[in-house]
Structure formats: structure tokens, C-alpha cells
């Protein structure tokens, strides 16, 4: 089902709501990557790095909300749109996070279902967004991060950039309000003890050991361990490239959404936030 509405700031949101047959097991907020669209997340015939993840989640009994991230398929467009929004005092990063977060309202209004346990699954750029969404809201929604775990400074200093200085970067992330700092330990301090699962392809060139993949994850693990929540964070390296897998991540997410502990931890985090 295609959905359109405006955020309070006036920016229009377009997305797809996947509604499963039968009883709803929960709601999953899906953030797609820059080279994809919500429609492609539900299309088996469209072979992109989302691997029809939205359709798989929906087939497993979950309502899936996937909004269109503000861009037109490349980082140049994302930078330009971010600049246009900034000229009106609107943050493109916040718009993208708010579009994903709106899934609970969209689901309630269009299906009548409320009180569903909610998880988040972000792929590539969408992974960065769901991490920051949790940091901003503190909702303690079990979160899967696919295709993002690196040190941004190491990326900027790597041959990926130095051998191709004309490559477009999401510069508003690197230079606006220092959002790129919120990875690793800095981010973990904000989201812990939110259940977190990271999946990275073994041949994902943007998230290699050399670019700080294992180092950044170890930083996050250390923060979780210091508060006795090491069990709440995990990472899997699967045989693949820069793409969504779900082989271990989907069972992990379903287990956390169906766990009786979901409501307890959600209420606890909300109580602290208030």
C-alpha cells in the first residue's frame, strides 16, 4: 500500500506499508539504502541490495513501514536537498528519521492496529538513520543495523577517497553538527541498553576491518558490557557484499519482538526518558 502525508514541518513523506495476511505479529520500521526505494524493498523481481527484505518481513507476519528517504538516488542529490531544507530551517537528517518514526501512526491509522511491538531494521544509509532514531527517541525498539559499521574518519582518509577526490560524500553528515561523531562508543552511550544486532557482508568494501568495522563494534560492545548488557548487542559477518541478509538478523529480531521482556524494557526506558 502506497502512503503519502506531510510532516509537521511541511515536508511530504511517501512510503509503502506492507500488510501481512492473518494476525499481525508486530511492526517493523524499515530504512532503505540510498540506491533503493520502498517499492524495491517489496519486489522479488528487483535484484538490488535490499533483497526484497520488506516482502520477507511481511511474509513472516509483520506489518512493515518503509518511507522514501529524502534523495533521488545519489549523494549529490542528498546534499542539495539537505541544503534546500536547511535554507528553511529544516534538518534533512531529522526529516528522514521522523519519516521512519511515523510508522506507528501510519500503521494505526490504516490498519486499526495499536499496541504492536515495534522493531527497526536499517540497511546501508537506512542503518545510520535507525541508529540515530533510537538515539534521539530512546524507545528501546530492537534494532538491526545492516551494512554500516565503520570509522568515518578512516573512510575520509582511505584510498576510497584519496584516489577519487571527485566522489560525492554526504557532506552534511560529516560537517553539519558533527553527526558523524555519533558512531561507536558515543552512539552506544545514547542507545544502550537497546537490543542491537549488526550484520555486515564479508565483502562489503565500505565496512571493512581496515575502515574500523571491528574496532567501532568493539567500542559499542564495551559500553554495553560496562552496564551489564553485553547480551543485548551482537554482530554477524555473512558471506556477501553490501546488502541485506537477514539470515541471523531476522530470527534475532523476531525473538526480541516476541519476548515478554519487550514490554518491560520498553516501559523502563520510557520511564527514564521522562
From TrEMBL:
Protein name: Dienelactone hydrolase
Organism field: Bradyrhizobium septentrionale
Phylogenetic placement of the source organism: Bacteria, Pseudomonadati, Pseudomonadota, Alphaproteobacteria, Hyphomicrobiales
Amino acid at each position: 500500500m502506497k502512503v503519502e502525508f506531510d510532516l509537521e514541518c511541511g515536508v511530504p513523506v511517501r512510503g509503502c506499508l506492507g500488510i501481512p495476511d492473518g494476525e499481525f505479529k508486530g511492526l517493523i520500521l524499515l530504512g532503505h539504502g540510498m540506491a533503493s526505494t520502498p517499492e524495491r524493498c517489496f519486489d522479488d523481481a528487483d535484484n538490488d541490495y535490499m533483497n526484497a527484505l520488506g516482502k520477507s518481513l511481511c511474509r513472516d507476519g509483520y506489518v512493515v513501514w518503509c518511507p522514501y528517504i529524502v534523495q533521488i538516488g545519489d549523494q549529490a542529490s542528498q546534499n542539495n536537498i539537505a541544503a534546500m531544507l536547511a535554507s528553511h530551517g529544516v534538518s534533512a537528517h531529522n526529516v528522514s528519521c521522523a519519516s521512519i518514526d511515523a510508522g506507528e501512526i501510519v500503521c494505526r491509522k490504516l490498519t486499526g492496529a495499536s499496541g504492536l511491538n515495534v522493531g527497526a531494521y536499517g540497511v546501508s544509509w537506512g542503518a545510520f538513520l535507525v541508529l540515530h532514531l533510537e538515539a534521539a527517541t530512546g524507545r528501546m525498539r530492537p534494532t538491526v543495523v545492516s551494512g554500516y559499521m565503520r570509522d568515518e574518519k578512516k573512510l575520509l582518509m582511505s584510498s576510497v577517497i584519496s584516489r577519487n577526490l571527485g566522489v560525492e560524500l554526504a557532506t552534511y553528515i560529516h560537517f553539519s553538527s558533527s553527526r558523524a561523531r555519533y558512531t561507536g562508543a558515543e552512539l552506544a552511550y545514547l542507545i544502550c541498553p537497546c537490543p542491537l544486532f549488526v550484520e555486515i557482508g564479508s565483502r562489503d568494501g565500505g565496512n571493512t576491518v581496515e575502515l574500523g568495522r571491528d574496532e567501532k563494534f568493539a567500542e559499542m560492545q564495551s559500553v554495553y558490557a560496562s552496564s551489564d548488557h553485553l547480551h543485548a548487542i551482537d554482530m554477524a559477518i555473512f558471506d556477501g557484499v553490501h546488502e541485506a541478509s537477514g539470515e541471523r538478523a531476522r530470527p534475532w529480531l523476531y525473538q526480541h519482538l516476541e519476548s515478554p521482556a519487550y514490554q518491560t524494557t520498553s516501559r523502563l526506558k520510557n520511564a527514564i526518558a521522562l
